[in-house]
Write a structure and sequence with these properties.
By secondary structure, the chain is mainly alpha-helical. The chain has helices spanning 27-47, 53-66, 74-97; strands at 14-15, 18-19. A hairpin with a 2-residue loop joins β1 (14-15) and β2 (18-19). The longest helix is centred in the C-terminal third of the chain and has 24 residues, at 74-97.
Length: 98
Amino acid sequence: MWHKSSPHRLAPGKIGGMSRQIPPATPEINRLRAAAALIPLIESGLISSKISVERAALMASFCEWSVQRPPTDPEAVRLAATVVTGMQRIRNVLASVA
């Protein structure tokens, strides 16, 4: 059992002995996080026919809107790249179900 005075206990904010900084939430980061999270939902919904093509297209339009302005923050750049590659996959799925 771990005791709070145990030498093996991690310091607050430490994960696996390394500090992890969470980037601040900005409107841009929040939009990109939401869009990145929508990508697999859209894909699985289309493949399983749980969402309509029209609903998927509406959700995809939000994702496309979220990456219209090129980001400058490194975290935003990473998220935007995820959204762009996800949108390419979604366009392929939409083309195959339409």
